[in-house]
Amino acid sequence: MSTMTRAATDGWVVAKRNLIKIKRVPEVLVFVLISPIMFVLLFAYVFGGAISPEGVDYKEFLVPGIFAQTVVFGATFTGAGLAEDMQKGIIDRFRSLPMSSSAVLVGRTTSDVVYNVLSVVIMSLTGLLVGWRIRDGVVDALLAFGLLLLFAYAISWVMAWVGLLVPSVEVINNASFIVIMPLTFVSNAFVPTESFGSVLRTVVEWNPVSTLTQAVRELFGNVPATAPPQEAWSMQHPALYTLLWVLLILVVFVPLSVRQYRLSTSK
Amino acid sequence: MYEMIRATGLVKRYKEVEALRGLDLAVPEGTVLALLGPNGAGKTTAVRVLATLLKPDGGSAQIAGVDVLADPEGVRSRIGLSGQYAAVDEHLTGYENLEMVGRLYGLGRARARTRARELLERFDLADAGDRPSKTYSGGMRRRLDLAGALVAEPPVLILDEPTTGLDPRSRQQMWDVIRELVASGATLLLTTQYLEEADRLADDIVVIDHGNAIARGTADELKAQTGGERIEIVLRDAADRETAQRVLERVAVGGVSVGDNGRALTAAVDRGASALLEVLRDFEEHRVEVLDVGLRRPTLDDVFLTLTGHATSATPGSPAATDDSPTPTEALR
């Protein structure tokens, strides 16, 4: 069997194991799924009045931003799950088996796609309740969800690498917060690009979280009619630019994580 | 005979500590080798090197002719490892655990399923097979872990302290299972802290201390070196000590150790009960009164006392010398 097929079949076996855990201990999901609901409600009702871009229904502007933010935050789940796995006896069993050395990572990132699907569904329902709408048809909407999940998958691999580097679940929760908070707040997820000063605005425009949000807004038809045209190339081609990031992240972090897994194997 | 497990000059260093200092091992096909030693002797390190979980800093090892450094994956498909801490997923049922391991060994779906049921049956876990393994007792988890090592019927089994922490009944069950495995032709390396376990299960024993083999041989050979059973006497009056010591020395193999303010005496003997009878007869003749008397099997501590002159100690370089240490006999290398 080729290395790739082996990685895929072994990865699927490990993913199934992770999914069984969600089935047996559904409590782990509750808190992770409550936070997107909380974010939608908080921003819509607490900031909704204060942050009100002209001529824009803020709730409709906001929900795609929350989508982007939540799938990025969701990757912490991957890192935490992996950090926890590495401390358990089962990893010794995995290491002594003639299985693909990337299977534990492939399995973890794959099972987290399921978690991301759940979280996107819950967010969409909450969004619809507070007044968010899909305006550009089913195909575009599915493309938007697809892009969100792809980006989430890529970020999962980054956090997988971090999860292998740090010694504990607590550390990874704090570490990821430090990276993810600026990444999602210095973006157009909550406020329009125009509201940033010139230097910060450039950062915002080339931040993949911004382009992801922009692409999703366009696909759902949530871009305000009064919004000024985008100047940066990245914001003019948000879907393409985001996909390039997805590729770049995967090319860098898949081998990096697999290497790190092997390294921690032979300590 | 063909050596299924072979290790030459294994060295492993952790910062200041040398966990292995040139360990040699050889296990002929179809036999059982027990690696006997206290905590911190290097047993688990040796196991992890042989199972490709750890790269040695020096030396080499082959499993079924395959080199652990050159072809770790080849080694993994030829071994079954069962660790000291049961490597099972607590959220998965026993069946799901075994099916998963089977799939990861590369068995097809159908084969992995039938194999999982077979093993649950064989290890007396069939009734509990569909319960999450976190509901299992310690002994059940350990059996499930061992079953995991056997899924692909590997020719070489490596068991790291398979019975440590088990109650006597679970230990007995584990021994039965291991004996069956050996009867079916497997080659087995097991580590243990219990001389009795090594004695019951192993063809050959290597005694390990501070990362090095300090004695090797069959159980009988080791006993001949270290003496067999121990006579333990507690005197009513410490004044009788010299007389008692003289009596014991006549039957003892090696020295007589004295402790507890001169009232407790221990001697290794090779004729067991008859030596004890002789000692008691002599005591009666010399009017030596005893509070307690007993005959017991030698423990790992006794082996260590005889071989190294110090009791088992986890910290290297600080032999736990006690006031009842006997005259050290020559360390056997």
Question: Could you walk me through the main structural features you see in this protein, from its secondary elements to its overall organization?
Answer:
The complex is a heterodimer of chains A (267) and B (333). Chain A is mainly α. Chain A has one domain. Chain A is 78% helix and 0% strand. Chain A is built from eleven helices and no strands. The radius of gyration of chain A is 19 Å and the shape is elongated. Chain B is α/β, with parallel strands linked by helices. The two termini of chain B are 24 Å apart. Chain B folds into two domains: 3-223, Rossmann fold (3-Layer(aba) Sandwich); 229-296, 2-Layer Sandwich (Alpha-Beta Plaits). In chain B, the strands form three sheets. In chain B, strands 6-7-8-3-9-10 form a six-stranded mixed sheet, with helices on both faces. Chain B has eleven helices and 14 strands. In chain B, helix 3 packs across helix 4 and helix 8 crosses helix 11 (300-308). The chains are: A mainly alpha (267), B alpha/beta (333). The interface between A and B is medium-sized, with 27 and 29 residues.
